[in-house]
Design brief:
Low-confidence stretches: none
Radius of gyration: 11 Å
Oligomer: single chain
Order of helices and strands: HHHHH
Strand content: under 5%
Mean pLDDT: 92
Number of domains: 1
Structural class: mainly alpha
Helix content: 40-55%
Distance between the termini: 31 Å
C-alpha cells in the first residue's frame, strides 16, 4: 500500500503556502496525503485530478463539499 499520495509532488495543499494557516495544511496532509491509499483516494483533489486528467483547481480542498461533476463543469 502506497502511504503518500502519488499526486503530492504537484499538489499545492501538500506543498504548502495555499491556506492561511499552515496548521490546516498539516492536518490535511495527515488526514489525506500521508494516510495511505484508503484515505488519499477519498481526497476530492485526487478524485477530480483522476477524472479530469489534470490537477484540480487550487480552490478545491480535500474535503470539498461540491460534487465531482460540479467541479468538472467549472474546469
Amino acid at each position: 500500500m502506497e502511504m503518500t499520495c502519488p499526486k503530492s509532488g504537484k499538489c499545492p495543499i501538500f506543498q504548502g503556502g495555499v491556506l492561511k494557516r499552515a496548521n490546516s495544511e498539516r492536518v490535511y496532509r495527515s488526514l489525506y496525503c500521508n494516510a495511505g491509499s484508503e484515505k488519499y483516494t477519498k481526497c476530492m483533489r485526487y478524485i477530480v485530478a483522476e477524472k479530469a486528467g489534470k490537477p484540480a483547481p487550487i480552490s478545491v480542498l480535500p474535503n470539498c463539499s461540491k460534487s465531482v461533476d460540479e467541479i468538472l463543469k467549472e474546469l
